[in-house]
Protein 1
Amino acid sequence: MKCFYYARNCLIIFIYIACLVLGFNNSCFASSAATTPDSSDILQYIHNSWHDLTRTPTNCGTYQDTKVANMPFLYLPYHYTMTPEIKKLKYSCHINVANLPRRIKNIGDVKTTELASAGLLYLPFPYVVPGGRFNEMYGWDSYFIILGLLHDGETQLANNMLKNYFFEIENYGTILNANRTYHLSRSQPPFLTSAILAIYNNQQTHKKAWLQHAYKYAKKDYLQWVSKPFLAGKTTLSRYYDVEKEPLVEERAYSSYYEKILTYIQEHPDISPFYTDPKNKKLLSSDFYQGERSLRASGFDITSRFGTFGGKTHYFAPVCLNSLLYKTEKDLAHIATLLGEKHEAEKWELKATQRHAAILKYLWNKKTGMFVDYDFVNKKQSTYHYATTFYPLWVGLASHKQAAALVKNLSLFEQPGGLAMSDQDTGVQWDKPFGWAPIQLLTVQGLNQYGYKNDATRLAQKFYQTIKNDFLSKHKIYEKYNVVKQSSAFSIRLGYEENVVGFGWTNATYLLFDDLLKKANTSHIA
């Protein structure tokens, strides 16, 4: 098979050089793309990946965790019955199995320090993991993975992942960052209602009873975000938050991680007083740890968008989170309408209207024409340019005038390979020069919704081509891409120092962009 790939790539290079020598235009490359089998190769890779990345409770590989060095451990919910199949896992997979010490109603009801060892939290249904070291079901990753599964006709697996969302809310208090014990203290960006409606609209077999069941969990999930400690001061907006203040368990595999952070902070006296322990300047403060943990809850780990290394994340009302909560409120109104609950639908619409007003008050910057984050502790808007400024397009809260202003700011982020996360190269993976699939997808879909189809198609083409060209040489799909160099190869100065293969949300985004570009009659350049 490798010989085939090498021969094919040599042929492509030969055609490319011949076209240059003969002076042909881009149609030469477009026609060669139609005769090469790479398009079907990448689609087959994605289709196979859903199976390769699926985990089940009875598969021993489900319990592997390279982020911590201890014997695999499985935790069941409090008072959850240990079935014969689970008991067999002790011996067949050589793992420890135990119940959590108490029932969990809210985040923080069980502290990670109370448990004998870090471990996997039981989920009853098969699920798709992102890939690589991320061998568990993640919060916001799973929404994009569900979109990919639905596209590929894997409806049962998509339904199973949604049922695992419900199981987490029922037994672990929230949709977790991921189903590991060291994530019991935080959630991730809320895409639950988006997932519910994606599945509902895809499968007409779902009845009113199914939607009523889903609605119950969606309401419970929403209430977390509009309650303390997730409120952003007196703004009525919400924030990302982790209830614990200790160093991250999952970073212990990277022994120098916090050492590098501390060294950097000590070399910058302007930020040192805010991040180091008041009693011992050789230690990071508990407030920093809580901020950095809260950054993990945002999904954007790591960026300097919320202060250096995200150490002040819990000080901010973010545009991404509050846009998603606006959409959640609108989605709940829609679901209530489908269920014939007119009064409830009106209440959700009112909540959405109130959040919209608060977003305009605190997060819209008329001067720059951008939606920004708001530091509610210091009472000022962020000046950090970040690609989440386009979330209001995806959720439909921007006016047409605001949308036009946002489009003018695309140049701050647009690169040869797609949208960079920011316009600042900070050496961490959620800033420039890196581009990530979910932000590309949300931005492109948002632009399309507001009628900016040419911009949407151009951006989709760029990221699609980056993935495709990289796949031609490496035969893999990755977690993230350097959109300046249009490559999966990169170097990171701090944080995760690898580019993980898989990869759930990139697979899904590629599939959806493939559809979008075909509909737009865009040439697929090999």
Protein 2
Amino acid sequence: MKLFLLFFLLFSLSNAQTTKDFSVIIHKPFNAGLFDITEDHDRTITAVGFANEFKRSSAPSKTYTNAFDYLESVSNKYGAQMSLIKVNNQAQILLSKTAKLNRFNKAVAVVKTPTNGYFIGGYTLDGSLLVAKLDANGNILYAKIFGTKNYDRMSNLILLSDGGVLAVGSSFTSRATTDAMFQTGLGNNDIFITRFSKEGEILWSKKYGTRFDDNSIDAVEAQDGSIIVVSTMSSQKSRDVSFMRITENGNKIWLNHFITQTQDENLVVPKKIIRLRDNNFVVSLIQYNHVQKEHIRLVKFDLYQNILADKEIATTYPSGLMDIKEFSNGMLMGVGYVKDKHNTDGLAMLLDSDLAMLKQEHYGGENFDIFYALTILHNTQVAVAGIHTDDYSQEGNMWILKLNQDATIAQIATLQGNFYDALCKTFEKEIQANRLHIKEDLTIEFTDKALYFKAGEYKLTQAQRNFLQRFSKKLLEFLYANKDYVETLSINGHTSSEWKNVSFKERYLNNEDLSMKRSFSVLRELFGTQDESRQKWLTKILQGSGLSYSHNIINSGLEDKTRSRRVTLKVILK
């Protein structure tokens, strides 16, 4: 198995030490782990999970300003406790806080609110469910402990379009005939779903299932407000994977037992469902073969139960995806685990829009490592949460990793704060003079009118060449000084959308050809200004492309044709 060895120093209880790779490991006494992760509005990263800590005696309090203090007050048992970790772009821990609630077992989900706060969902050791809403500073806005008199367990918490949340879980059967929630025929474990308003009011709680064991795994909101639920059903004779669609009020629209298998057949276990940008859905499943080796299975379907794709991804070692997300370009990334006889590693897998695997990377040491969740960041990088186990250890630790879009590990930006700030400092005069603009994703856009191309032209004017000579000297000196961080310098040509008296096909192809010529003109100018040793380095990072009019500039609903005729550059970090 390919291993990505992590080199790090030991952490104190509240601080972590990292290498150049963006990998943060938080050691706690006894086992700990992270199960969900999100990006904050200030570009920091927050993850939730559990840690085992012991409650110290303290004077009782009747007023609570912090969610964790409130959670501590509702029980006096001992055990695992909910933890929240926040890190910045330099992989520094800004907040590491553990609830002193020994009754609370695990936090399973964290989602953002429009005010930069959080919804956190989980369950207690004795079988109650909990949803807490926190502000941006971690102060409690409300907390709800709910469920049945029996054993309940939450599997996920879903943010809805109205600002509320949907708690998805399972509940052991109750036979209280006076409770309208429980209907005839439900038995053993049942699907248990509760919808909250953004103010914390329970709008409805409903159970679904059969007389056998039914367990909900995940859910997602459709574009029309209905909800798709993924669950399993197990009896003595069969095991099913089921998709169910319910209304926003919880009324069942349809139920599809997608996979019905006997106990003698290979096991299939669903893990995650997402809604794609085309408003269809993808479910990640773990498929076991005849020798009980697990591998990855992905199913795409639409709102009307039509299966659009069903693909199994065979891997050399047993593998599974615990979470999956879609990039804006239609590609997907999944994270989970890969294992052999001796150890388990965290798995990151890049997939195309047809669910075919493009690349996989393994991360971990010589022991047990696993990824449970990912979130796609604003700059197309990916933050991952999971568990890391040190070599020669039996205890799991909290783990946050940042990856690039190609699944390689990201670097910590340490250049006078970070790479973006350092790049902006390099071109401070040009930015102040409104000659160029640098985005946080390290895209460089020229804003001086003299730097745009005229319609149909791609050869550089003298003004453009003069500017590019000065610009390229500063840019390439900066990139070369920090070449250990730089993966690619992409030079992208663009056009406006017009081309007179031709068909649609010719209009696109002519503009594609023109955009590539514009890209090459700038690439040639930058390349030609360097000496031979620097040119050899540039051959490893330069990448030219023509984007036709696919990224034309729109202002107030209309195309800005002048500004669309341009070339942009983008620095892509390792």
Protein 3
Amino acid sequence: MMTSNEIRIKFLEFFKAHGHTIVPSSSLIPDDPSVLLTTAGMQQFKPYYAELDPTTTVHPSIGQPIGRSAASVQKCFRTSDIDEVGDATHLTMFEMLGNFSFGGYFKKEAISYAHEFITKVVGLPISYVTIFKGSDVVPKDLESKAIWNSLGVNDVREEGMEDVFWGPTGSKGPCGPTTEIYCKTSEGKDVEVWNIVFNEFLCSSSREDLLAGKAQLDRLPSPGVDTGMGFERLVTIVQKTASIYDTDAFQTVFGDILKNDNKKSARIVADHLRSTVFLLADGVTPSNKDRGYILRRIMRRLVVHSQKLGLSKTDLLNRTETVIANYGGAYPEIVKNLSVVKDELQKEYDKFANTLKDGLNKFNKLFANAKNDPATFVDAMAKNAFDLYQSSGLPFDATFDLLDESGFAYDRAALQNRATGLMKEHQEISKAGSAGKFGGHGLILTGEVKASNEEEVKKVTRMHTATHLLHKALRQVLGEEVHQQGSDITPERLRFDFTYPQKMTAEQIAAVEKIVNDEVAKDDAVTMAEMSFKQAVAEGALAFFKNKYPETVKVYRVGDFSKEVCGGPHVTHTLEVGTVKIVKEEAVSAGVRRIRAIVEP
């Protein structure tokens, strides 16, 4: 039987032999600011389809251009199916095998490579394949059908835009029709194992807009290929196991845990501990916002289910070392960060475990009372879930999991919606209180600026405008591929994170600082206008966190220098900012840098 490590190696060796440059997995923290985490193998390659020349642009992880063809095994993370983790197939962190062409080969070679690897290298028969049936704007993919037929695959099925037209990932990007390969599981069920995307178009907006007919498609000057094959799913089929968790990829590390009678909790622990290791190793830290919130949610759910299995903190820390030992060959970065991973896991465990016992006791009492009246159960338990989160930090997921395991029949979707609604109501009340406390500025609402009195409000307001000037100056000096990744502002200093693959030189830092202070000296007016988000983007306003913006947004303009979608607050003229001094430039994670600066009167 072929092991999971052998499958991973054979994939890379196969495509290397066919002229592909092997590129290491990128970080789970993506360069693409429109998504919080890396969700697909092609994300690190997006610029090569429409912006960068792969034959001349040096790829930062290999120190040379990747050329027209590349292949990788990419670690990915998705939470869209987190509620399904615990069944036979769903994961949060997974690996994606992929091969890519940037204006090199196209449909004939891509399909032939996939056919050869599936049928000859790993020895799987193909059940059937799919092709794009066409739409009002893109014709049927008759070429792919003919290629499959020539290879002896005659069961070719046609599907539509929602199923076999991929992309874009994030807010815009390359996309195109796909052809999928289906193989049978050990139980005789046909499942998709490989999706081959033919990037022929550049989409002007999101996938949601594309499906709604609101996006523009322009043909790429050089069509490309982007493929993705779920590694764990492939291993399951090759090894003829009943579930992902029965493959050697999980049994080697979690075999004893997965024998537990509480199968769902055992699988959640296996998935979430593996995910935690990879997220922490890539520089994500638990917090209450963005990707840090995702990690904290995963970690707290891990603690809940590990305690249900009788696993201690020491058990988890020891198992962390086993995860790293098993995956370190494929992902050496996790080996380098072993101590960081264990330290962060221990801190979060201690922080949460102290309140978890109290939360579980409260849950048992609240549940006992709520189930006595089925007619009001959803409303009562939604309030209980919210109260447990507020008082004990018990995640909604954990409360819902406990309810599922109780065997009590209830409408989980209705309960989730009601509990989420209570959370939103609470957040709105909190926002209103914060806005009033700081004279209507709403500083606490942005999550970026912190102030405790009116004097500090003035200081952080100057700092906030300075971050806009820094952002623009960085893009002028380093290039427009620089995107804001976050900021944190206190009365003493500002911190600004941005995408850039390497350390800035002293000359670059000096140039950025000069541009900012020259703009301050002009005493340009800082103005604000409200408009729709779409209009703001159409007029060139920078906006890199689209999913957070309401329909109507505020756009702040600094003279003719910069324009950004922002919630404020800002000074009225740049001279109010003062002199900006960059005191430090450092790495945050792969592809992300950080500037620390102060502002002097």
Protein 4
Amino acid sequence: MKTVFEKTEWFRKAEYGFFFHFLNSGSALHPPENRSERIPAPPDEWNRMVDSFDADAIAQQLHELGAGYAFLTVGQNSGYYCAPNETYDRIMGLSGDRSKCSRRDLMLDFADALAKYNIPLMAYTTTLAPGFDFDAVRKLKSIPPWNCNANCGNYQEVKQFAGTDPRLREFQTMWSAIHAEWMRRWGTKVKGWWVDGSYFADKMYAFPDPPNGKSFADALRTGNPDAIIAFNPGVVYPPCAVDPNQDYLAGEINEPEYGLLNGPMVEGMQYHVLTYVGQYWGKGPVRGDGKALAAMTRNITDNGGVVSWDLPFSPKGIDDELFAVLKEFADQYARSKKLFPKTEVKITPPSWNMEGKAIPGKAELHSADSAEIRLEWNGSIRTNGGKKDAVIELSPANAKECRLKLSCGGFSREIPVHIGKEITFSRTPSEPIVLKTKDESRILGSYRCSIDNGCFLIDAEVFEKESVIRERPWEGSCLEVFLAGGKKEKKQFCIRHDGAVFQVANGIVEECSSIEVVPGERDGKTVRFRAEIPLSLMKDYRPEDKEFLFDFQQTINAESGILRNILSEGVGCAVYAFAKAVVK
């Protein structure tokens, strides 16, 4: 049996590829606000759309772009799929012209077209049934009894179909059978899977007995035991794994500059990032020129990762304007590898403590070949002296973020580096940590923090006249507290201004009785409360380490509407941007 490192070798060597969201009209990549936008084309129109997909033309374009592989969605949330499946049809009670599975096996045709150029194909699917097809979620019994806000954002609509089994055993058995049928047909022509919406791995997969993560992974490897699999936990910075049965990180992020890890293996899985080349999934215009895309890709591939770029396209292919940018990207990427040797960069961010003392960071460089690499940081210029290995000190800048620019042979790439905060807490309440609006025109809240008897104590003063309460607590009057311990596993807690507390994990919102909130005076201008958060809620926190990571995000209701800001201003509440709490 191959190890994960061996199974993912071809993927790692591919370095980059492209991702195609080919979906029935009305099947949104993310929940549409307008219900009418969810209405898909009927089966006859869907079949015409699938038949119009020019697999040979697109394969030719990918060959010209140096693609190491391609992804294609077999389906998503509309209930329609671009390949036949008798098991799905039988469960749905549909057949012939009424089937929502296309007559053409587009996955098979696309795989054959790509094979002419030795470009592997991988498939996209979802963890749950198509969330906008109410008939499908009912017949597949895929709605859980727990409140899942991340389930296409429409749990309130579909909870009428909720079952009583929190593990969704019947659904998982049927879903595995559906995918096993596809893989029996495709075999080794499909090299792997990217499984979206795996926000609930702990509730569905983390069990020793099937159905579980292993049984679903086994179904996805039917006919191809070497198929590589990723389960997607959503947009997470930096990318992480959710199930031990996956082979590579799903790596969904919106900003590829902030997906830097040190690979090639992370948590025993291949380092991988999936992002979009445009302004959003499947939408243009392109976010940068070819050289910028090449630089962002090099940041990840030089560190042992793989980058998948989602593309806007039509069934006829990539349009001329985008193709020209992508061709420039491919040319610049290939050219850069001749000018700038592969150079892994490991960043230890610099920071400031509460007393204004500078705590230097460092950039550790390891190059495959000797070359003079120029580094620009905060107005200063250094070089690696032509050595393969070098360590460059990074002094903190008077900014929340600074960029490390590396140049060699006329090619440059930049790495954003967050300037951290280090705050010492003791049993005595700290000086106020003040959080303002982004334009600093208004104070949102002030927090005095302390540590006592294993609890993180927050004495909060929030400047709000009248609170507003929302079903999703973070959308209304709320203090969000983010915590992370030694392994940087993020915990998110929402403390509403009415005293209710919730824990948010992978889109699931649950009441949290472990955190005690003691309300204070409310004078019509401010809301005061004390939150007592046991540090033991972080499973990977060890008191002897005397440190953990934290962040605050405050939301208030104001005359002008909802105001919100975060202490770190990190992308996507990213752990790398959290402040470090030192326990004294």
